[in-house]
Amino acid sequence: MRCLIVGTAKSGTTALLYTVAQAMGGQPVVHMEDRISALQVLPEHTVVKLLFEHESGPAISAFGAAFDKRILLVRDPRDNLISRLLYMVANSPAMLGDQPCLRVFCQLLQRKQQAPASVSLQQFPPMGKPSEFLASSCAQIQALAAFAASAGADWHILRYEDLVAGRLDGVAAYLGLPVQAGARVDPQYQRVARTKGAGDWHHWFNAADVALLRPLLAPMMATLGYADDWTLAPQPHITPEHSWMYFERLVRERRQHFGLAPLALPGPDQLQPGAVVRLSKADIINRLIRQYGFKTFLEYNKFDGASFYGDIVCDSKAIAYQPENLHFDAMRARHLLRVTAGADLGQLLPLAALLERHAGQRFDIIFFDPTHERPEVDLSMRALCALLTPGGVLVVHDCNPEREELTVVKRRHGAWVGETYKAFALLRQYNRASTVTVSEDYGVGLVWNKDLVLDYPIEADISYAQFAARREAYNGLISYQQFLERSERGDLLTLFAQPPAAAPLRFQPRPAPPASLECQLFWRRPGADFSEDDALTRALPADGSVQALHFTLPLGAAPVERLRFDMADAIVAVRIEAIELRNPADALMWTWDPAAHAGQDWRNVRFHDTGADGLFQLATSADPQFYPALPATILGQLGPGWQVLVVMAAQPPLVSALLAALAGAPPRQRDARQARA
């Protein structure tokens, strides 16, 4: 008897091969995953296993005609996907050689084993968007489902779930042989087995996985005869043996097979509660350094203590920080002051100073973590490329926001990527063959210094909706798995290889910024005058929106004899809701009393009470000023980290003009106008 067994990877074909061979008796010739082209002559007593994804459907049908019996093995696509994900390391030299990837994969498995619902399958590196692993797995399962639907009566279709449960009466009847479960598999293939069970997906999927995978897998399940029931286990349970311990064993055995050194992966006792488990920009940079032989590294980061400079392994390293006064607020003051205490302030360099310091010097790789505001990001990216060696790489953080709320222009607490993705997309518009973005860690953009066009106009814009609809085109998005495979050869041309261009990218003119005023906080030293050198400036949009302006005294702002607040730089109406003074511990030390404004030191300002609409301040010149009357005990403490918080709204020009007209009218006329209003 000649028997052919066909199925996709991780669907139980190895177990079925040895089960059928045992039932056939004697010593049948066993072919394990040979290609059809190598199986031209087959003895009479033969059992052959083919992986469906290795051949085409028509080729399998034609080849199957030479067999007496043909068995097609199918499996629930959900369980099949999990098995593929955990086993894929076995056949991926690039992944096996990437320690950060293995570390993250193992830690995610450990965390999922401990709390299954807390970790989505989408967090694992091969499932990162865009996921070639998911796309190819679905394509293979879909092709198998189509093959099963068109298979004639001379094919017996066996479910994996029946195989592992020992329900083999149908196979026995089809073969005319006493088929028994539990056949002994050759030891060299034992590594492929994991749970030898079915229904794992109930415990491995969480709600986010169901939302992603149900539209993809449900049509295939229907074709293969599986019910559209996606009920998850109420108390999911995953054993160590079937998760991270299985993965560890595969890594150990396959690294040995490929001649790689033994590797100790982190144990579950090393997991820090609440720690984020993901691949980072440092992992990507270190791989670039290793794979492409880079020797010199520059980091240009925000001054917030989040540098990973110590994690980078490179022969020569340098670091500098961007001043970020606009974002130095009281909520971060104590943290930033601690950072400052241990920092070399000579590393705090505006872009022009950075370029001057390194004039004539070049770096193989530069990491840039922007302040996320345009046009500063555009200008910085173009300028930093001038510091790269020919063939060097600029690494830009935050190029792939997954949610629109991360992209607000004004800094938000927590994750924030601002407008960096727009600036990178525009650079890519002119340098498509030299830019890609790795999907990890909010998007790590890579710019290859090869034939770059950097004199392009930066007055172009995209909306988040435009970007989200075609992010792979706008930022050249690749998954970490793709990054591993592309960088394996150590050839930058392969890393930056681009598919054929699709429809052209569309940009529109960047909208003009709303009209804004400048508000300033001055501090005066003993025996000195107020000076622009001792002042902080904040923009205030003149659109009626309420803004919270943070003025935090910087390093060197001590001693302070007096404060002055200039609410605008134009003749305008504003409404100030609160003025507060807070110490570096964010404790409220003083607050402005608007009800007592008549006894306070306001200059070039007239107050106007509109009744129900509240109290407005009207500037009578372009230089309105307020001098807070602070107790001497507070003035003696003022210094770095103290913050003045002003909550106010500048009125649009028409409202300002009306309020000014009302304020300037004689009392009787003003009262009549207010009554009519």
Automatic annotation (TrEMBL):
InterPro entries the record matches: P-loop_NTPase, SAM-dependent_MTases_sf
UniProt xrefs under Gene3D superfamilies: P-loop containing nucleotide triphosphate hydrolases (3.40.50.300), Vaccinia Virus protein VP39 (3.40.50.150)
UniProt-recorded name of the protein: Sulfotransferase family protein
